[in-house]
Write a structure and sequence with these properties.
By secondary structure, this protein is mainly α. The chain contains 8 helices and 4 strands.
């Protein structure tokens, strides 16, 4: 196994903050979790939560949780951004849940459990479903699988690369290469205005 990136002190601090922020976050956003559940149930029949196997640190599989923004008949191994849907195909409120990032709030539980981190590479699906992305990641000098995947990160901020496999992999590798408190700090505070901007631009 390759050596973990970053110092031992930073890795301990990062995990401590993940537990603290996600635990507190689950309490504080509980009203939004309730609203999200109501919107999903009102939008279309089916389960409230969407569950999908993703690859975590050291390529260990885990189940990621999101509010369901696709119809139940949609393929379970396809991500929302890759699914060819028209507005008519989407459940009601799906656009709002995705745009506001409210659909990702259940991932706070994944962070609290240790499957994910607040900040890190994108949590990709099993390699058999995303062979080109997996190979592009493994070709990076800094392996994105050495750290926990994140709720937000470089690739999530650079949304123009969302459909470019090589750029996704490069951003994930760049994050690991620069693994540090400074980088996490910058990403965290850039994510806030980005999400707010998406909400108000659509509004």
């Amino acid at each position: 196994m390759e050596r973990r990136p970053g110092t031992l002190g930073f890795r301990f601090f990062k995990r401590s903050m993940d537990v603290l922020v996600s635990g507190l976050g689950l309490v504080l956003v509980s009203p939004f979790l309730l609203v999200g559940a109501i919107l999903v149930r009102a939008g279309s029949p089916g389960p409230i939560l969407f569950r999908q196997v993703r690859l975590g640190r050291d390529e260990k599989p885990f189940v990621i949780y999101k509010f369901r923004t696709m119809r139940v008949e949609a393929p379970s191994h396809v991500g929302a951004e890759d699914l060819k849907e028209t507005k008519e195909d989407l459940p009601k409120f799906a656009g709002f849940l995705r745009m506001s990032r409210m659909d990702e709030l259940p991932q706070l539980w994944n962070i609290f459990r240790g499957d994910m981190s607040l900040i890190g590479p994108r949590p990709m699906m099993e390699a058999k479903y995303q062979v080109p992305l997996y190979e592009a990641r493994k070709s990076q000098k800094s392996d994105p699988f050495l750290v926990r995947p994140g709720l937000t990160g470089l690739a999530q901020l650079r949304m123009e690369c969302r459909h470019d496999i090589l750029e996704k992999a490069k951003n994930d590798g760049e994050y690991v290469a620069k693994f540090s408190f400074k980088q996490d700090f910058v990403i965290f505070f850039k994510t806030i205005p980005m999400v707010l901007g998406l909400i108000f631009r659509k509004g």
